[in-house]
Amino acid sequence: MANRLAAETSPYLRQHADNPVDWYPWGPEAFAEAARRDVPILLSVGYSTCHWCHVMAHESFEDQAVAEVMNARFVNVKVDREERPDVDAVYMDAVQALTGRGGWPMTVFLTPDGRPFYAGTYFPPGDRPGMPGFRRVLDAVHEAWTQRRAEVDAQADRLRDAIAEQMRLGAGPAASDLPDLDTVERRALAALGERFDAAHGGFGGTPKFPPTAALDLLLRLAVRRQGPERDEALEMVTTTLDAMAAGGIHDQIGGGFHRYSVDAFWLVPHFEKMLYDQAQLLGTYLRAWLVTGRARYRRVVESTIAYVLGDLRHPSGGICSARDADTAGVEGGTYLWDLAEIIEVCGDDAEAVIRHYGVTERGNFTDPHSGTTGNVLALRDPEAEPTPALERARARLRVRRAGRVQPGLDDKVLLGWNALWARSLAEAAAALGRPDWAAAARENVAFWRRELRRPDGRLLRSWQATAGARHLAYAEDYAACADALITLAELDD
Predict the structure, then answer these.
(1) Which residues pair with 458 in a beta bridge?
(2) pLDDT tens per residue, range 155-208
(3) Are 382 and 246 in contact (CB under 8 A)?
(4) pTM for the full predicted model
(5) What is the DSSP string of 165-189?
(6) Which are the contacts of 263, defined by CB distance < 8 A and separation ≥ 6?
């Protein structure tokens, strides 16, 4: 029998509607029940396309014996971090304060009044080196709650105070203490330069996420500064953008970008595709093309737009949130190629494809769960120009891939992410003279003005075709909407 999540607007929550766990959505009912029973809340936060969320769900939340323990000892609450970023942000601070790191799935144990006292991310079903098993964690938390309640309350108070202090320290200096703009720019350039990976692009170690905010700042500095500072800024931008565009993080066949790279050189991605990444990377590559004139950046702009409008656009005019990392239990299964299939599909053009993408019989990726192997396609030469043979082959490979089982689609439409997309799409339409893109941006804005605005004018965060819209929008949604509307007004001027 379905639990309380069956009627929720979030596809992620509905994925757990048939779990034997007696899940509650976030809300006063769950906290009242925890207070009535005098038990902790077990808060589990994730999102629809999260690979490790699926793994933990399969290993633990679908297990009848584990569910019985959870139901007997806790009130269990599921939250979609994309639908409720406010809840996610508060308890992610707690996870990071306790463990020094964060991520999803996020597992937090709360007192009935909402104070966290123990937290982590993914827990395996049984003990592993350096990782306690989930059943052991459940037993330990239950023992602490029933036998050492004073210690639990003291830990909750310390954690609450530590988070409050962190927020106070993060308030920043008074305006009178701020340095001038020139000093800020020089310090920013120096700080990014210290963390820059000159060999492979990006900043810092692995995993590597597309650093769109840093790259946009560097592009602005390249326009504002002169001489060596301009050259240094552009070098960091072009090295990173070239490496990402050539790597496996960039879908070489279907367009768009995966969420991050598990290695330093952008080859093997975490395969989920998020709308907010497409929106931000579209803007960054567009501005890089405008500054440098490099044709390969324009091709990335065009292929990213083609991907989103072709794969994520909902018939209503909204843009869906994401594609899953997994296909039928295989991480990246839709995107992998073996040598024999490349030869079969590409025919006379196969040799050019094999050289261009470095395809081997052994492959360059193995799914650790299924053992499936294959090639993640990536350019051997980032500066290589497409040839007629490669274009013919890519078209054939797209057709073949479209016939495979596709990753799951998170079809909720998030206001802030759609507004980010509409803004970038409108900018690209203006820069490249594409009235069809401008029309698509206007269609998207018309959708969220129609479906994500209440009669009183208040905006809503999330919409799903069968469930409608429910949660009020947040500050980030309003900011992104204002940005998109101003951009479209400039385009229509």
Answers:
(1) none
(2) 888 888 877 777 665 556 666 677 888 899 999 999 999 999 999 999 998 999
(3) yes
(4) 0.90
(5) HHHHHTT---GGGPPPHHHHHHHHH
(6) 206, 208
